[in-house]
């Protein structure tokens, strides 16, 4: 009897000890789901457990500004170095030329993170970035992406300017009548995503060998290709890939157009856009499928739960910054604060930005207020600010 009691006591103590040693990282008060990966949701893992070397290829018109803002904030919070363009390049690394390290400001070396616009150049980027850098990019469904580009770059891109009545249908009926492959800004009019990835925008999408080699090339370098239509799901996959916590992926949507300047696309237009941008369409379909495979390896319900947790945390943060779930959205031209006015390609394109309601934020600590400001700061201003602070640190 006594032996049995001692044995049971031994089993109980061993079990407790096992739990303490193996379960100690679980915050028992956190929602904990059976079979879901148990990364902590809240700050817990210290920085050296997180991946801090990240190259994000910022593609055009794909919610990539929101991603860039998130990476800038992560870098600032953790004193990391972000490679930034030399001043003469503005806020881009010599785009549309291929990226080279000559475009990188010397005060921003050696980098942990790189995210400003560039045309991808694997060899040059790998020479610049640490060996354990995680490569990420983002794609968006080509028809909505192209419609966005057509409006946004209308006065920038000669192929679009030539369309007399400015109609997308007219352009798509005979794209080769308006489009010239080698002229300035032609990349906004044909397979922009493929171009940003360093591929040949004018290569025929029917060349199966080229398409397969391109898909394989992108897949080999990029650990994650996010998909704009599933932005939150992509962020959850990213968080697991980088061992980041929930706070690291909080964001506000940036660089949006006013809803009433968006064109509704008929099924005919969707297929015309996809066939004109067939390389982009192949890339998108392939990497959308690949994202959903990655989501299922985490378990769709686990990802959905984290998406929900992300949205709740976002709402809480919005409330603390703006006392509303949505900060006041304004046309860029109406935004008085220079730090918050987004860049507009022309006065005819209505880009929306946010304004901090001064009286609401008076009460929060200056540190919290700074976070609120950074969350909605457009890329041009944020890039300038980071360059200043990193240059100070460099000296
Ligand atoms: C556990 O989570 C709660 C709620 O988020 C938090 O307040 C607490 O500090 C966490 N405890 C530990 C040990 O991380
Ligand atoms: C970042 O640097 C500042 C100033 O040098 C320091 O106060 C802060 O603790 C650092 N933060 C981290 C996360 O290392
Ligand atoms: C633009 O012009 C084309 C022919 O030149 C015509 O078919 C089309 O209906 C016009 N579209 C608009 C929106 O005016
Ligand atoms: C992306 O892939 C998923 C899963 O295969 C599919 O259900 C969805 O329709 C795709 N989305 C788009 C926009 O093509
Ligand atoms: C915040 O919002 C609530 C409800 O909408 C309102 O009652 C309150 O006065 C607001 N506070 C501030 C500081 O704006
Ligand atoms: C903040 O200022 C705006 C405009 O001046 C005003 O309408 C609003 O009531 C003010 N809110 C608070 C909480 O004082
Ligand atoms: C400011 O903070 C104090 C204390 O936290 C609170 O009582 C007060 O309602 C807040 N005022 C506004 C305008 O948010």
Automatic annotation (TrEMBL):
Signal peptide: 1-23
Entry's Gene Ontology BP terms: glycolipid biosynthetic process
TM region(s), chain numbering: none
Primary localization: Golgi
GO molecular function terms listed in the Swiss-Prot or TrEMBL record: galactosylceramide sulfotransferase activity
GO cellular component, one term: Golgi membrane
InterPro entries tied to this protein: Gal-3-0_sulfotransfrase (IPR009729), P-loop_NTPase (IPR027417)
Keywords of this entry: Glycoprotein, Golgi apparatus, Membrane, Signal, Signal-anchor, Transferase, Transmembrane, Transmembrane helix
Cellular localisation: Golgi apparatus membrane
Domain of life per record: Eukaryota
Topology term for the membrane: Single-pass type II membrane protein
Protein family membership: Belongs to the galactose-3-O-sulfotransferase family.
Protein name: Uncharacterized protein
Natural source organism: Mola mola
